[in-house]
Amino acid sequence: MQLISLTAFRSLGTVTGMIALLLSVSVSAPVPLAAQDRAPQVPADSVVALPELRVEIGRLRTGSVPVAEVPFPVNIISGSDIRGTTGPSVARALTGSAGLSFTNQTGSPSQPDIRLRGFALSPIVGVPQGVSVFVDGVRVNEADASQVHLSLIPGTAIDHIELIRGSTGAFGKNSLAGALNVVTLRGEERSVEMVLEGGSFETLKATARGSESLGSFDGIVTGSYDRSSGWRQLSSTEEISLFAKIGGRGERTDGWLSYSFASHHLEGAGPLPESWLDGGPLPPDISDPPDDRRELQYTGGSGDMFRPVLHFLSGRIERELGDAWTLQANAYGRLVDFRQSNDNITEPDALGLTNIRTVGSTAQVSYEPTGRLITTAGVEWTRNDVEIEIRELPNRTFPSLTPATTERLQTDENNFGAFGETWWNFRPTMSLHGSLRFDYVDLPVEDLLDPSGSGQNEFAQFSGGIGLSKSFDAGWNVFASYGRGFRAPVILEVMCADPDDPCQLPFELGPDPPLLPVVSDTWQAGLRMTKIRSQAEVTVYLSNVHDDIFNVTDLETPTRGFFTNLDRTRRAGVEASLSLVPFSSIPLTVRTAAGWTRATFESEATLSAPFLDDDDDDDDTEDPADDDEPTPPQVELGDRFPMVPSLTANLGLRYELSQTSFELTGAWVGGQFLVGDEGNDAELGNLDGYVLLNASLEKSFRAAVFYLHVTNFLGTNYQAFGIVSRNLRGPTEAVERFLTPGHPAELTAGIRVHLQP
């Protein structure tokens, strides 16, 4: 039976301190340069400059202040940069950001795992999440496990992306590392754009977008189709997306209504035993392996498949109530169905069917009496109706099994939030920001097959932050801030938290002991420099996390596991970025970013880390160390999280003439500990670091742009993910590294036509 966990007042002292100054910024970001305030006047001898960055305040975005007066790091990615890339997507747009790292457990290019400051932003069910993701202010972390499917966000409809680092209370639960907000396009003057692209591995992509503005009304429609056979066995992709938005602007009122549809079919070949990659023995059913063994798929059956279908309706209205008061409100309905099939070896195949129905609304009042003060306050409510059904199916190991439903759960989750925020430029060179928010989560779980497994879960928590920024002459600025964030356990975690009854993640759930919500305290400070032709930022941060939720792997059956609270974990690091136009008369832009991340356990625990302390090597039955049962090591203070590289670095060079542009980008990713080696023993080795280089060439001809893009043009053989496990298809079922091969060199070419009658 589930228990009630109320933790709203566990840190009343911190909350009281924050109430002293109810200040904040829900750091958003500017629209592209065409719609934002222009950069300072460029000297006559200069032909290239960087735009001035401005941010908007509030949970639903209002007002506008220079980014130098915000005490949090903010990344802003314009829509023109996103749509200028091949296959525009949110994940691809984030590459090159300081401190972000990418892994890929499934092997599908549409399902990357992202780490921000050591916290996860992942599509994988069972990976504890630490980043909130919004589309036009609507949370899109899925209600069953808080996972995020960035591929469901239409890349062709993005106006800009805002990445806010650190806990900012206005965003509510999950914002341990920060928040990501995707702002979609509004209709502008009449135009039509079409893109056709083809490339390696039978890749075909086609997109179309139409925009119109008639008087006070505007509208936009985009659609895309993307398919690829994949470079590995059972790794095909097919994605269909549609987005439409209509809006109207009056003298005192602005509003819009949007609809998104997505239907995807994604196969993931997953990791392979290292012995296979090194030319070792293969199972008898693989009689004719490919020349490149990286193309193999492990299970030998039908493979893993993920098929989501999304319908998303959202609307927003803004009304000026007077010279200083403004009301903003949104409402939304989001329907998503997931069909996830897993191909198993020692257990029946599993089919998970998840239906999520979400409705909600946010209302916010803003007060801006002068250009030096913005105050907002609001409330929001979200209801998630979730139904989960899990079926077991026959396979080669269980050919005579009768298909049956093993789990059926449902929940009617309600989330309530109230927040207040203020930005105050109390001196010409100093600004103060802060926020305070209260969240209440009601999570009842009904087990439809075993009513005794039903239960009630409640979580309540204050969060918020406070910060100060100080500007100096010549474009220099310093900032410092504190923020408290939290994350409430989700249905998957509260129903899979019993170490004596591990789940076949994510396909077996039941009544388990209660989990506590995660709470983080984040301090960060930084230095910014903003010039006409250069922008730079360096940030140092420290996050102490209490009751962090971690996925523990079962020792005997690594496909099973459970969730547990860890007393203390920590994230610390340094992030640095630089954008530079080095020459006043040469159209060359240089962008570089680097991050040092240290994600560590700060309390002892026994976690997954299977097999690494099994010392059975001499067959001495009298030796107690010789035990065929795997014995995991203890995680000790300072042990590092797996799949979080200590160092990452990115470099981009773009040379742009009137009709031609060339871009070269590179990324260096440092070594990483494997999943299953949380004790940092590294007896089987770590994941090696690697370097990737990409190149693009564009040529304009009238209304058309022809482009060529090469990914990983050096053909680097790297590993995108690693885990320690038994090779159940090997001759001795030995423990070894399982590695997901990184994507090889890929060539794409396309044409983009923009017509403006």
Automatic annotation (TrEMBL):
CC annotations in GO: cell outer membrane
Acidic residues bias (residue ranges): 612-630
Ranges where the TonB-dependent receptor plug domain occurs: 67-179
Location of the protein in the cell: Cell outer membrane
GO terms, biological process: siderophore transmembrane transport
Xref: InterPro entries: Beta-barrel_TonB (IPR000531), Beta-barrel_TonB_sf (IPR036942), Plug_dom (IPR012910), Plug_dom_sf (IPR037066), TonB-dep_rcpt-like (IPR039426)
PROSITE patterns hit by this protein: TONB_DEPENDENT_REC_3 (PS52016)
Membrane topology, record value: Multi-pass membrane protein
Record GO terms (molecular function): siderophore uptake transmembrane transporter activity
Location of region: Disordered: 607-640
TonB-dependent receptor-like beta-barrel domain location: 278-711
UniProt entry keywords in alphabetical sequence: Cell outer membrane, Membrane, TonB box, Transmembrane, Transport
SUPFAM superfamilies linked: Porins
Cross-referenced Pfam families: Plug, TonB_dep_Rec_b-barrel
Protein name: TonB-dependent receptor plug domain-containing protein
